Amino acid sequence: MTTAIMPGCEPYSATNGPLGVLVLHGFTGNPSSMRSLAERIAGQGFSVELPRLPGHGTTVEDMMTTSWSDWSGAALEAFDGLEQRCSHVAVVGLSMGGGLTAFVGERRDVAALVFINPVVMKPSDELVDGLQALIDSGMESMESIGSDIKKEGGVEASYSATPLRCVLSLFDGLVEVHHDLAKITAPSLVLSSREDHVVTSDNGDEIVAKSSGPVERVWLENSYHVATIDNDQEIVETSTVDFLHTFLKS
User: Fold this and answer.
1) Is residue 70 exposed (0-12), middle (13-18) or buried (19+ Cβ within 10 Å)?
2) pLDDT, tens digit (0-9, with 9 covering 90-100), for 139-194
3) Is 12-247 CATH 3.40.47.10?
4) Is 95 a catalytic site residue?
5) Is 225 noted as a catalytic residue in this protein?
6) Which one of 158, 225, 230, 239 is the catalytic residue?
7) Catalytic residue among 148, 196, 230, 232
8) Does this model's pTM top 0.85?
9) Which value, to the nearest 10 degrees, does the dihedral of the CA atoms of residues 225, 226, 232, 238 take?
10) Helix 164-179 / helix 125-136 crossing angle, nearest 10 deg
């Protein structure tokens, strides 16, 4: 039996010109947080794929059956599919989607990369050990990390809980992502919120410091983590589109 997709959380696809853009959402999130950006990119004549990552946009129980290998595999598959019909492909990602953006950029010939409040580092051993202790005690989930939005009334259609085993799987996957950052040679844009209660901005610092390609940094002064639907949404969308026009060329 297929789990029903939450309303508004469906994947998005647009076939336009020969230049493609893969757009990736975050952990426990879904395409709804990236849809406006994806549609804005498509409106500029790019072909776009915004997949719904495995276990996302349905139920927390569904997500509990997935892991980093599923999410990273889906990202690579979506990139490869887009590359089959496009001459050049860029990748844009939010949060875990930013980690997946790095993952793809380290393994494929990517034209450009856009990171929005990305997570590319495993956190401290103390935090990981604490999460493992919670699991060992029988706890399978904790409170939601969604809707870290400064905009009044802003709500993200994310899960109401965070599956702990999935968190640890994400952290394990990020070890390799962080180690391989120097393999990124494509031009990168890093968009970082000054205040983010989910992912620390030193993740963006690591991309700036370790990427082998040119990196541009834009600071977002009026948004929290989910900046794609926060007060700085227009800055995020305009900066992304301008960057793509500059570096994504046939």
Assistant:
1) middle
2) 888 887 777 899 988 787 788 889 999 999 999 999 999 999 999 999 999 999 99
3) no
4) yes
5) yes
6) 225
7) 196
8) yes
9) 120
10) 150
